[in-house]
Amino acid sequence: MSHLLFANDCFLFCRAKVNEVQSLLSILRQYEKASRQQVNLAKSEVFFSNNLSQAAKQDLANILGVKHALGTGTYLGLPSMVGRSKKATFTYIKDKIWRKINSWRGRSLSKAGKETMIKSVFQSIPSYIMSIYLIPQSIVNDIERMLNSFWWGEGTQNKGIRWLAWDRLTCSKSRGGMGFWDLKAFNTTMLAKQGWKLLRNPESLMARVLKVRYFPNSSFLHFKLGHNPSYSWRSIWSSHHILLHGCRWRVGDGSNIRVMNDPWVRGEGSRWFNLHKFRKFIISELLT
Description:
Layout lengths: L2 E4 L2 E4 L5 H18 L9 E2 L7 H11 L2 E2 L5 E2 L2 E2 L6 H19 L6 H12 L4 H4 L6 H16 L13 H4 L13 H18 L4 H10 L16 H8 L1 H7 L18 E2 L5 E2 L1 H13 L1
Parallel strand pairs: 3-4
Antiparallel strand pairs: 1-2, 5-6, 7-8
Helix pairs in contact: 3-6, 8-10
């Protein structure tokens, strides 16, 4: 992959070598002469992998004439770099929700108003991030505690008795809850949706890149985590069990299905089996 274009941003890729960096600069100069548009190096940044020494990074950044980015901050609402400490990376989500709650603290809101605020405003803040990354459970717990405090609290200090735990409030109203989101389940579901897109659109750019990188010799439903995976891929992989449990094959002409291994036989309720599992299921039912 040599470059990516998104809106008015351009990402250029090359090896961390002096000759490749000089070739990249030569291409940019030719582009400037041909288009009469000059690249703004003051707004440009360069990012290196961890395999390079600090001195080499600085030398290459000086040749390019741009700033050396450390991978901190966010880009288009997402963290530009996910490090070892996932909690530190995603703490900004909790802080954003906390600031929004504080802006409404002390205002007189009925229970109906609080319900609308939680469902339409507070819980929608992390929805985009949760569709890309698996949020650490500690962050999810902190967010749910803040929402629970806002729901039961009164006044500027949000003081009040917490009559029900948050897991009870996430039940539907017919079961005695309020229908709030279970953020952990919502996060997993949104990631499973990304996996479903890869499964349904195997010719998309993202699907082709991930296939070459992580499962070149197998299908998406039968892949393993792979070597040195990115956190975004690890996040999608964490929801893999949902697709395995809920997907089934329509046999069609049978040119692609693995009849003995892919699920296509209906069992009890919404369960689907391949022939191996269906045989084990029938035997177990007969023995009981």
